[in-house]
Design goal:
This protein is α+β, with helices and mostly antiparallel strands. It has ten helices and four strands, in the order E-H-H-H-H-H-H-H-H-E-E-H-E-H.
Length: 307
């Protein structure tokens, strides 16, 4: 069994940039989070409180993302991690999704209570704070957008679920801010105090749906299911290596980090070549970061006897 020369550092191509931007967004979010929760409580807006509490989970999830980047970077060369720390971001994304689902339940509960027992809402003050929160969310989304939904970036460098979790948190926050503003404006214009907590429920449902999507996607990576880009690798490998002389008898492909895949190939051949011969055939597949080849000779005489 022969393994290609390589390091076991399978971090995303934009790891350091994403880490720095995540810390900046954490600072912005934490300040706004406190302002929204306090203002929503004082001014009686459940939609604003819901937005603030969601922003608090967003801050916690961003902290998980930032710490995951930090830990993955510091332990990237630790030999105890046989295949590096590249999938730590997927673990962080899964944890963020679970926390967010729990908070969606909390927001639904609190909003339901306000529907049954409405409180006085100070609309003008609440709208001002909600608009401030929306501005912060949009700035945060801009900071985290570069490298997330860029198709060329994802194609060449892989899909970073940790960054996606952070990005989706601020997008979800922006959505709940918009809903809160709409509820407050309509509630003030038509004297509908029940609309504010109802929008809180709607926002919670949106958050829960997003949480489920992120949970299933990051969880799939953790259990070894290939993403859309990696799913094409087995076929590409077979197309490059399978022929009348060489046959793949065993093939394993799994993701070890954003844009990084490990591959184990077992070949039987009637005319075995040096490992470099097969590696050159796979060189155009840039998604392969860790390659292990096992080459088993197969005698023509044994084939004739079986025939």
């Amino acid at each position: 069994m022969i393994s290609a020369d390589h390091s076991h550092v399978y971090l995303g191509a934009s790891q350091q940039r994403n880490e720095r931007r995540t810390w900046v967004v954490i600072a912005l979010t934490s300040v706004t989070m406190v302002a929204e929760i306090v203002a929503g409580t004082v001014f009686g807006s459940m939609a604003l409180v819901a937005d603030g509490w969601h922003m608090s989970t967003h801050a916690a999830a961003l902290l998980i993302a930032a710490l995951a980047y930090l830990f993955a970077r510091r332990h990237a060369h630790d030999p105890r991690y046989s295949f590096g720390t590249g999938r730590l971001g997927d673990l962080a994304a899964f944890a963020s999704a679970v926390v967010l689902a729990l908070v969606a339940l909390q927001i639904t509960w609190e909003s339901s209570r306000r529907l049954l027992a409405p409180v006085e809402i100070h609309y003008s003050e609440a709208i001002f704070v909600a608009v401030l929160g929306l501005v912060v969310n949009l700035v945060s989304a801009w900071l985290l957008h570069d490298g997330h939904h860029d198709h060329d970036h994802d194609h060449h460098h892989g899909h970073d679920n940790n960054l996606r979790a952070a990005y989706m948190h601020v997008i979800a926050d922006a959505l709940t801010s918009v809903l809160a503003i709409a509820a407050l404006l309509l509630g003030r214009a038509w004297n509908w105090p029940w609309l504010d907590p109802l929008i809180g429920v709607v926002g919670a449902l949106v958050i829960a749906r997003w949480s489920w999507g992120l949970m299933t996607e990051s969880g799939a990576v953790l259990v070894g299911r290939l993403d859309a880009a990696g799913a094409a690798l087995p076929g590409d490998i077979r197309a490059a290596l399978d022929n009348d002389r060489d046959r793949i008898t065993d093939l394993h492909v799994w993701q070890v980090g954003p844009g990084h895949h490990a591959v184990i190939v077992v070949l039987t051949s009637t005319a075995p070549q040096a490992p470099d011969f097969y590696k050159r055939k796979l060189r155009h597949l840039g998604w392969i970061s860790h390659l292990t080849l096992e080459i088993q000779p197969l005698e023509l005489d044994s084939l004739r006897l079986k025939a």
